[in-house]
Predict the 3D structure of the following.
Amino acid sequence: MPRQAVLIDGKALAKSVTDAVADVAARFTAAQGRQPGLAVVLVGEDPASQVYVRSKGKMAARCGFHSVTIRQSADLSQTDLLAVVDRLNNDSTIDGILVQLPLPTHIDADAVLSAIDPGKDVDGFHPINAGRLASGDVDNPLLPCTPAGIMHMIRTIHGKDLSGLNAVVLGRSTIVGRPISHLLLAANATVTVAHSRTKNIEALAHTADILVAAVGRPQMVGRSWIKPGATVIDVGINRIEDQNLGTSQLVGDVNFDEAMDVAGAVTPVPKGVGPMTIAMLMANTLKAAEARVKREAVP
Ligand code: NDP
């Protein structure tokens, strides 16, 4: 069967976002006499987190930001991590703070995320920013990066208004599932959130005009889950090892080849939602810097 779906190219889309961010950042730097500043904090040596943190640092530099990566050992105490956050909250060269998740299990991640200055919370996970989104306030500039990136991708297919469209979100995490459901609802989609306790999830997914898969289960969503012509956003990042060959590859939560046969538009893994997440982090840092300048200008 010939392939029919449109490939939503996250890498190209992300580049258009970061190019625009770099332009505005250059003007910000010229006007303010300082660069927008992003600090990324990494605790421990989780290999995937190290890759993400490196990419974020590189992209921040490419956007013309002042970029700081703070690496701490896995046995850092919660008190010491809170002291790092406090120092960054009070650092006038820093506009955005990101504490890379997951944190070691002896640290209460909620306590750390809540300690970040909400105005510097470029991940959008502080309870104030998460609460604003949950109460329908999508004008807050600090929307969580992955969901904001997903909406950007959906807009390339459906425009801003999703009236009349059914959206099904697979996954209810605070990082992806819940916030994307709020953004879809705010764009007038009719939204259903499914999770591990949902019955007949495959049939439910098949009702979706827009299907967002964020479960962390390699290629769970196959052909029979997808309504013909649907837009399929694959958030999952799963590493599959081939024991015989000693190799590994990244796959999403969606069977890409089957989705390309039946869907209307599909995001790939890699080069889909991942680059968009980083691009939106850059956009958030710039917005946080601009908002700070405005706040500090008020007498
Ligand atoms: P979580 O593990 O926090 O949440 C997974 C969700 O999926 C839960 O709500 C869980 O249900 C649900 N779930 C798990 N198994 C099933 C199943 N068999 N059927 C239905 N629902 C199921 O994951 P995240 O939301 O943090 O991440 C999801 C995926 O997205 C991961 O692969 C992650 O690596 C990737 N990711 C990618 C990003 C990117 O930038 N591309 C950014 C963030 C995440 P329940 O609540 O009932 O347990």
Observations:
- The first helix runs from residue 10 to 32.
- The radius of gyration is 19 Å.
